[in-house]
Amino acid sequence: MSIEDLIKKCQENNIKAQKELYEMFAPTLMGICIKYCKDQALAEDLFQESFIKIFNKIHQFKGEGSFEGWLKRLSINTILTHLKKQIHFLPVSKDFVEDLTEETYDFEAYSIDFLLDKIQELPQQYRLVFNMYVLDDLPHREIADLLNIAVSTSKSNLTRAKALLRKEIKTKSS
């Protein structure tokens, strides 16, 4: 069955098609939830909430653009809606300037598990912006809009996240 047929059957509330769609995209969407949530139980809750929203809103997908992109966006928005209630972003002044000199590291010298663990250890607001900017390739303007923060706040949180990661990597290298 093509993805278009599967979507159409899901739009008709076909349980078998919903199960197939769930099984097809569950690993991808669970990965997104884990990436954004420090707590496994919260990631699982938001994963389930994402699928509930997907099945409730699947009739809104009109076949324009990538269906997987639509699923990911809906999942990320579900996560952000939850996390925005818990995070307090500190505004920064327009004069805020931080040393953006970045040391280079041989990231291949570190396991992916080590790097992902260090990202997960970042404070929530830094991890959120870091994931959105670095891993999801969103521009600061879009991050700011999604999180209802200033662009400068997004940039400063990214800078601070990178600084903490550099410090952790430097500590491991020493």
UniProtKB/TrEMBL annotation:
Superkingdom per UniProt: Bacteria
The RNA polymerase sigma-70 region domain covers which part of the protein? 21-86
| Gene Ontology BP annotations | DNA-templated transcription initiation
Stretches assigned to the RNA polymerase sigma factor 70 region 4 type domain: 115-165
> Which terms are listed as keywords in the entry?
Sigma factor, Transcription, Transcription regulation
User: Annotated Gene Ontology MF terms?
Assistant: DNA binding; sigma factor activity
Q: Which Gene3D superfamilies match?
A: 1.10.1740.10, Winged helix-like DNA-binding domain superfamily/Winged helix DNA-binding domain (1.10.10.10)
Q: Name one Pfam family in it.
A: Sigma70_r2
Q: Which NCBIfam families match?
A: sigma70-ECF
The record's annotation in PANTHER family points to:
RNA POLYMERASE ECF-TYPE SIGMA FACTO, RNA POLYMERASE SIGMA-70 FACTOR ECF SUBFAMILY
Q: Which family does it belong to?
A: Belongs to the sigma-70 factor family. ECF subfamily.
The entry's protein name is: RNA polymerase subunit sigma-70
